[in-house]
Specification:
This protein is an alpha+beta fold. Helices cover about 50% and strands about 20% of the residues. The protein has a five-stranded antiparallel sheet with strand order 4-3-2-1-5, sandwiched between helices.
């Protein structure tokens, strides 16, 4: 696992898109996000072998990993070169909710974000029949098109980012307590991307 994570950092110094950085690291690190022993070893290795790859991976992990591992990665990253991309430049946009719980059993939630003037959105399907679990979660760079597509399917209402991410926080808490309940692979792959946005919105 440690080698797989370190290898995943190989392309990071060449990237210029912070969203691509988030997606790549989340897909690899998400399944092991709560394994503190693993991250202690990974951070120690990256700290002891300074390089552009080590600096980029530590920076990404500092933003994406929850709890102490994220703190460890951030402390180690401060002693190495900063990457070209800036994950700290994330901003929040509008959030929209559509209630299909009566006829289809789910809530749809679209949250928009941006890095600079480049927007993106995450779309979530929260299954109200099976305990309000996040059943699907996908990220798109076509935020306006995704919003228009949802409007074609249901009535949407504007919701504040704090309220939207509070709903997501409850839903992800349930999913993480029962990870075997058949959620789609996209939920796992984007888990740390979503969790980072939840944490930022709630602070």
């Amino acid at each position: 696992m440690q080698q797989a994570v370190v290898d995943a950092g190989r392309p990071l110094p060449q990237l210029t898109d912070p969203l691509e950085v988030e997606l790549q690291v989340s897909a690899v690190a998400g399944p092991f996000a709560d394994n503190e022993e693993l991250w202690e070893d990974v951070v120690r290795h990256l700290r002891e072998v300074p390089s552009r790859r080590s600096a980029a991976l530590l920076t990404a992990l500092a933003h994406l990993l929850p709890g102490r591992p994220g703190v460890w990665a951030g402390e180690a990253a401060r002693h190495q070169e900063r990457p070209r991309w800036d994950l700290g430049a994330l901003t929040f946009g509008e959030c929209w909710i559509g209630d299909r719980s009566i006829d289809a059993g789910y809530l749809a939630l679209l949250c928009s974000y941006a890095y600079g003037d480049v927007p993106h959105a995450m779309v979530f399907m929260i299954d109200e029949v099976r305990g309000s679990l996040t059943r699907h979660a996908f990220l798109t760079r076509q935020a306006e098109e995704a919003l228009a597509g949802l409007r074609d399917e249901m009535r949407l209402e504007l919701i504040t980012p704090v309220a939207a991410h509070w709903l997501l926080s409850r839903s992800y808490d349930r999913f993480e307590r029962r990870p075997g309940l058949g959620v789609s692979v996209d939920v796992h792959q984007t888990r740390l991307v979503a969790r980072r946005r939840i944490a930022l919105a709630m602070t």
